[in-house]
Please model this.
Amino acid sequence: MNAAIYPGSFDPMTLGHLDIIKRASKMFDELTVSVLDNKAKNALFSVEERVSILREATRNLPNVTVDSFNGLLIDYARQKNVHISVRGLRAITDFEYELQTAQTNRMLSGGELDTVFLTTSLEYAYLSSSSVKEIAAFNGDISQCVPDFVARLVYDKFSKMRTE
Ligand code: ADP
Model:
């Protein structure tokens, strides 16, 4: 069985993430998209909310499952008996960090966990979760960045935050 994990913060999932998920799901028999529960990052959505967004967005992809994890990716991958991590590369700015992470994971796992990089589709190259949040915080248009149901959730979050 050819399985892979696509780990990330997905706060929130964008069309760029979804593009990587769809393409990776054609390359592997099983793809687990897993939300990293990183307490250090000040997230807009809870881990449960991010998981539920990803589940909704991938419900037509039968070989994709959504999960969450905390701690080291190599421990999570070992526990799931998966040896490939998928990551997306947008621009050269992603490269240095991604290369370092991939090499660290390979070293820490004793060569058991390799990383496969998919380059972004050009129409999503500019997209990031942080820019989606920045635009939405000022009520800007994020309809080109995330699926419609995600856009509604993002606007709801910000309007709740404004009234709190
Ligand atoms: P991180 O895991 O670094 O907190 P994200 O959750 O935003 O970041 O992203 C998870 C993965 O998806 C990373 O490999 C990132 O490079 C990739 N990614 C993010 N946005 C895009 C995009 N627009 N196109 C392709 N890949 C992307």
